[in-house]
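Weekly modeling sync, notes
Attendees: S.R. (lead), two postdocs, one rotation student

Agenda item 3: backlog of single-chain predictions. S.R. asked that every request posted to the team notebook include the full sequence so nobody has to chase files. The rotation student volunteered to paste the first one in as an example of the format we agreed on. Action items at the bottom.

Example entry:
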Amino acid sequence: MSENQERNQDFINEVEVNVLSAMIQSPKACESALTLLKDQDFTVKNNQVIFQTIVELFKNNKGIDVTTISDTLVKKNFLARIGGIDYLSYLIQNYISDANVKEHINILVERTTKRQLGQALKKIEDDLQGDKKITDILIDAEAEIVQVSSERNSEELLPISESIDDVVEKIEQLQKSNQNLTGITSGINNLDNLTSGFQSGDFIILAARPSMGKTALALNFALNAANSLKQKDEAVLIFSLEMPKDQLITRMISCQGNFDAHKLRSKFKFTQDDWRRISNTAEQLKQKTIIIDDSPGLRILELQTKLRKLVREYDIKLVIIDYLQLLTGSTSSESRQQEVSNISRSLKISARELNIPIICLSQLSRLVERREEKRPLMSDLRESGAIEQDADLIMFLYRDDYYKEKNGEDSTKETQENHVAEIIISKHRNGPTGKVETVFIPKWGKFENYQNS
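Predicted structure, as returned to the notebook:
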């Protein structure tokens, strides 16, 4: 170790000692440190063990002083390893005040971040020497950097007196506004009446059995949201893990232009008028900023990385993910349920952090099919676990005509009643639950407002 490195290490040791001594002597300093610091912030093993002991005492609601720390260390046979009671006494003697404890905490956090960045850069360098594709290296590199930057949340906690004026101003602006919605429109009036639109920062689940039309409904949400946007840089983002981009665009042309989707996908002979309508619809869609990522097998960390990048480039107003169970976790998990729970929590955090509504499609358990009552329940969410807890809004799509067709009943008559679809809101953190009726037109893949007779 060079002389310069030795001086640097001595400085870090001194900072660690100052923080620990303040934690032992000052409850206020202790709370500040526990909020911001982790084990890895202490590079000296003795100091790391003492910090872990303080954390343990705090969690167990016990007093923090030399006696309780030494007693805990004795029970674990660690006291001698950290230098005995003499080292703890040295920490106490070193304490002067906690006036500079925040600065010392920030030094430790900054040092850890630099170490983590160094490790990330080393991994990137190793990848560059290997056979990995450059596109994969770029994705992984950005993910590594994002992981480091998102490790900390050191936002200062403030009393509500600092925020309450902003909230009152928003309420006042809403009352003065001619707009009925505070969020992004779904395009379905009765749904918007219940939700006031898809709200910024909300994590939203849309779930249904296969072939019920959940992708079609999500595309309707995307199109209706895009049609409502006013500014050129405002955009809707779709992550499609199930369906390639060209199929989604075909569906959008069908829905936007009221074309028979089957004819668009088959070798049907179009008239000049048909081609004119297709061309006009395509031009309409070109005017809207809808971004589609159809990468299959996307990892949650890759999705978050791409999302953050696009948020920097566009004013993203709505994100749709099709669908949750096709995402894979960033790290290995004990079970698939645990992996889905981690993915759900990550999406919830992204919605809050980026202040964007994220609609994530989800599968339902096959148990629905074994019941006489086919309308979904929250317990039907596949690998539900944390999904119920994390979601701000849970919507289920149910169509009675789907089951009539399966049972061989006639549901082909082109009447509104034969194509009623129900959007069942089973959880709404900030508003009422209930059922919304809409009309599904299968050949267009379109959901329209239900007209009460």
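Discussion: group reviewed the output briefly. Strands lie at 203-208, 234-240, 290-293, 315-322, 358-363, 393-399, 420-428, 434-441, 446-449.
Action items: rotation student to repeat for the remaining queue; S.R. to check formatting next week.
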